Amino acid sequence: MKISVGKYRIRTKHNENNKFWKDWGRYNNSSETLIDGIWWKTSLDFRNTGRKKFILINWPMLVDKDTNTITKFLHQGVYDEVQVNSFKFFVLRFLMNKHPINDRLYKFKIALFERKYTIFVFALAFFLSYLFYIFNIAKENSLINFIANNIWAQTIIFFITISGFINIFHPFTIKKGTE
Q1: Which of 111, 136, 153 is the last residue of a domain?
Q2: What is the average pLDDT across 44-67?
Q3: 53: exposed, middle or buried (C-beta count within 10 Å: 0-12, 13-18, 19+)?
Q4: What confidence tens digit (pLDDT) does each residue in 129-158 have?
Q5: Between 20 and 30 A from 173 (CA), which of 5, 56, 68, 132?
Q6: Is the dihedral of CA 69, 74, 76, 79 positive or negative?
Q7: Rg of the Cα trace of the chain?
Q8: From CA 147, how far away is CA 177, in angstroms rounded?
Q9: Element (H, E) at 48
């Protein structure tokens, strides 16, 4: 995404050098700034002093795309400090993953990723229950009548229910045997 900031244009993009972190992780964006017609890789810092908001453009450098080595520095340290409005400050800070909202989104994504199997099982149970409900409505409660008249179906349902309750208080699994 390209954003005009003062006399500069800043481009944020996915960091191609991100070899070890997962794509859904944090700090995987990089910035480039258009200075005198050349796109320089830069670091952005954000400074908020009450009503004034500043973006600090740091360490503009040219990087060889094939070897990822720095070929030239334009300036070491803070190159320029540009005052921006609140919206651009928010957007750039969000795109560079330096906003508190990014922390909350990251924690939500991690929590969702860690619980994806539980969410899948819950969604599967909901879908199968809904399918059972729709089938019973369409076939005039034939499944309910089948379960009511079949002792084996009742036994299997009772076993699954009791084992589910027991598993809440005393989890059990079938372990693989090692030889």
Answers
A1: 111
A2: 90
A3: buried
A4: 999 999 989 988 888 898 899 999 999 999
A5: 132
A6: negative
A7: 29
A8: 36
A9: strand 38-49
Residues 100 and 136 in one domain: no
Q: How many residues does this entry show for the chain?
A: 179
Tell me: do 79 and 14 sit in the same domain.
yes
Contacts of 33 (CB under 8 A, 6+ apart): 8, 9, 10, 11, 39, 40, 42, 57, 60
CA 169 to chain centroid: 33
Examine the domain organization and report whether 123 and 57 are in the same domain: no
Q: Is 75 exposed, middle or buried (0-12, 13-18, 19+ CB in 10 A)?
A: middle
Contact 63, 73 (CB under 8 A): no
> Same domain, yes or no, for 84 and 140?
no
Record the pTM. Answer: 0.60
